[in-house]
């Protein structure tokens, strides 16, 4: 890794200087001085067109940012990841989600094992199983075909599957019902199963470790529900399959490991939707569409691996995020898909971006002296325009926004799609250029109201356009953000692939659970707030 601390790098210092010069400039001026930037500041890959011209950046900014990427050894670290080196240093693991989508016949040997061959072995088994469920050949305990598939998992074992199912619903089997249970709140599983018949329901228990308490609690309750309806433990075998790396625990739970689909420790939870964790996705859309999705991921991987940095979509988006976070003090980035099927995409991205880059020490364990991962959030357009966009337009914070739109709807109706897309372009335009005081006055506005109607503009956007939402495109879109996250994490010198921050809460919850369950008053030794809250809860519980 690079030895020069981030803020001492020559390109960083040049960017500081450059920011002092152009940071205050308005997009109105940048466009007036350089009318060609809308045609020039764009890039395209794997079916995605990126317009980044409405960013508070010039060609010189982009040149310096690319220089920062070079000086931060982005290319070397990217190549290390693709070779299977252990770039997840704090967990001493390789990071090889890119191997999950390498084509059949390709080979990547890591520590003596051809991981691509292993990936395709699992994909073929998944395809065989998905076909059996889809064709009705896989029968439940009473001989009925499966009609309902319930994925039980949390975090990376839930957000990818649910997002992909919603995103690709158009391609899914409409005679099958898909549900996703993640929360340990019993309402989640109760509501997910209340209208289902157990003899036609299949549970896919998805857990890399098979040790996650929420998932195990839900899996046990699902088993109780099933056995309660079907009257025998023997029914479990035909109604439960597992996706995991831990065969021993799967067997302990009572799932036949012949019905287990594996993956590897080099697949991080939030990077696993295209591994066996995507089993529910494959049952929903079929193996062919699943393979198309993998091909989309792979096309973006190849673009990231080979395209020059200045034309590389994930690199450009990652660098622009760094530019705003570290030089403009930006705290959050919005991602607004103008596509109803992508309604869970922002939630998925929250985990991908924030669990990856929410770190405050470098790979060497030094506390950083600069900001790292921003908050990512969003909602589908146009809904957000009628709620929180006000703050983006006229609030006091700078929030760069990614707007995602498509050339065609999968459900065309009257002129809905043009109405939808007009809003994408209008929002980007309004955010960038706003409305000046003179313009507001010229409309004959009451002088007292003028300041309220002024839109200062200069709010940056990226606009991503694609032809239509296909499995291939979804794969490319997810890979785009994955590699943008990697680009940011590399500049910041952090480990984007561990998640130690989620551990402490889990440990404390395990300590507190017996104190809540104890029939007699427990001896509480926490801080006074936690002790009082526990006592209060115990009283509420009994009242
Ligand atoms: C993701 C995280 C985390 C993980 C869940 C579920 O990168 O590691 O969200 O996916 O905690 O873990 P299991 O799959 O092991 O149940």
Describe this structure in words.
This protein has about 550 residues and is an alpha/beta fold. The protein is about 45% helix and about 10% strand. It contains 22 helices and 13 strands. The mean pLDDT is about 95. The protein has helices spanning about 10-20, 25-35, 35-40, 60-70, 75-85, 115-135, 160-165, 185-195, 215-230, 235-240, 245-255, 280-285, 285-305, 315-325, 345-355, 390-395, 415-435, 435-440, 450-455, 470-490, 505-515, 530-540; strands at about 40-45, 50, 110, 115, 150, 175-180, 200-205, 240-245, 260, 330-335, 375, 400-405, 460-465. Helix 1 packs antiparallel against helix 4 (about 60-70). The protein has a six-stranded mixed β-sheet, with helices on both faces. The longest helix has 22 residues, at about 470-490. It starts with 9 loop residues before the first helix and ends with a helix. Bound molecules: glucose-6-phosphate. Glucose-6-phosphate (G6Q) binds next to loops.
């Amino acid at each position: 890794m690079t030895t020069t601390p981030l803020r001492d790098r020559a390109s960083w210092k040049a960017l500081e200087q450059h920011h002092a010069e152009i940071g205050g400039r308005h997009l109105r001026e940048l466009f007036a001085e350089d009318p060609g930037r809308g045609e020039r500041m764009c890039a395209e890959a794997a079916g995605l067109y990126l317009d980044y011209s409405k960013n508070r950046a010039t060609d010189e900014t982009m040149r310096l940012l690319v220089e920062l990427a070079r000086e931060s050894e982005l290319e070397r670290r990217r190549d290390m990841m693709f070779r299977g080196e252990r770039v997840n240093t704090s967990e001493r693991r390789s990071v090889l989600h890119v191997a999950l989508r390498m084509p059949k016949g390709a080979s990547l040997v890591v520590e003596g094992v051809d991981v691509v061959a292993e990936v395709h072995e699992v994909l073929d088994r998944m395809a065989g199983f998905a076909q059996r469920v889809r064709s009705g050949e896989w029968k439940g305990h009473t001989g009925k075909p499966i009609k309902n598939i319930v994925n039980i998992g949390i975090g990376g074992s839930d957000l990818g599957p649910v997002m992909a199912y919603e995103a690709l619903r158009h391609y899914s089997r409409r005679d099958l019902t898909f549900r996703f249970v993640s929360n340990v709140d019993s309402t989640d599983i109760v509501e997910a199963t209340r209208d289902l018949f157990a003899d036609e329901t299949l549970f896919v228990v998805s857990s890399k470790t098979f040790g996650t308490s929420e998932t195990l609690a839900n899996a046990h309750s699902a088993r109780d529900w099933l056995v309660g309806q079907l009257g025998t433990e023997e029914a479990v075998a035909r109604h439960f399959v597992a996706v995991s790396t831990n065969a021993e625990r799967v067997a302990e739970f009572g799932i036949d490991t012949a019905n287990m689909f594996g993956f590897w420790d080099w697949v991080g939870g939030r990077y696993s939707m295209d591994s066996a964790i995507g089993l529910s996705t494959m049952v929903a859309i079929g193996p062919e569409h699943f393979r198309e999705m993998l091909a989309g991921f792979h096309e973006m991987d190849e673009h990231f691996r080979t395209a020059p940095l200045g034309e590389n979509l994930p690199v450009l988006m990652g660098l622009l995020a760094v530019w705003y976070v570290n030089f403009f003090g930006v705290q959050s980035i919005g991602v607004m898909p103008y596509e109803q099927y992508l309604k869970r995409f922002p939630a998925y991205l929250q985990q991908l971006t924030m669990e990856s880059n929410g770190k405050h020490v470098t790979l060497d364990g030094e506390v950083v002296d600069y900001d790292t991962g921003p908050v990512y959030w969003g909602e589908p357009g146009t809904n957000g325009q009628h709620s929180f966009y006000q703050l983006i337009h006229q609030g006091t914070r700078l929030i760069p926004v990614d707007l995602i739109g498509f050339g065609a709807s999968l459900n065309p109706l009257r002129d809905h799609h043009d109405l939808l897309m007009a809003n994408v372009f209008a929002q980007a335009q309004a955010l960038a250029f706003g409305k000046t005081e003179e313009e507001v006055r010229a409309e004959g506005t009451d002088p007292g109201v003028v300041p309220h109607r002024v839109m200062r503009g200069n709010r940056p956007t990226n606009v991503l356009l694609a032809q239509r939402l296909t499995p291939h495109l979804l794969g490319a879109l997810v890979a785009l953000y994955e590699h943008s996250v990697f680009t940011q994490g590399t500049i910041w010198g952090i480990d984007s692939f561990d998640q130690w921050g989620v551990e402490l809460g889990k440990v404390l919850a395990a300590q507190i659970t017996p104190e809540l369950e104890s029939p007699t008053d427990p001896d509480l030794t926490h801080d006074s707030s936690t002790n009082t809250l526990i006592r209060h809860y115990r009283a509420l519980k009994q009242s």
